[in-house]
User: What shape does this take?
Amino acid sequence: DVKVTQSSRYLVKRTGEKVFLECVQDMDHENMFWYRQDPGLGLRLIYFSYDVKMKEKGDIPEGYSVSREKKERFSLILESASTNQTSMYLCASSLFGRYNEKLFFGSGTQLSVL
Amino acid sequence: ELKVEQNPLFLSMQEGKNYTIYCNYSTTSDRLYWYRQDPGKSLESLFVLLSNGAVKQEGRLMASLDTKARLSTLHITAAVHDLSATYFCAVDINFGNEKLTFGTGTRLTIIP
Assistant: This one.
């Protein structure tokens, strides 16, 4: 079975802390994505990556950065967490150039910043 | 900027009834996706629609795409409780990179 694994299901952090959210996929996918999900706003794309060491900004990159040192791992970093970054974070992956393929999502990390 | 709008945002319907969820988008695209999310769970792919007039069906759900109207519909036939979930449509306007823009979601509750 294909899998996208997010390291934490729930996370509580304090304002100003540096936060790492980890995502690993076992499908040898080139594309990886980070979305955040908020009630009434749907899913919004933060960053995505087509290849190792490659990253592109999504629609709401402010306050976030990412790292992709290995093909299977895509990390989302909150340099200095703020309360407005309290949200559900979803990682996803897909094959590159195969637009008829779906995204595979992880189970999500519910982050609370106090 | 691409905008994807779904309506309704919330829908309560009785078992056995039919209903349709609408997804409108603002920029030309011929690739649209439907996902389902159960409470507390992640998203699961339902349909991939890749051309004008595309229609896909799975069980009591049927999705269609009209690229000229920039509209997709998700039709529910004879609803059952198991279909209670939040449904998202998503649009891809960048060929090959699957950078999807999602709608706000429709929360569907099926009442016995």
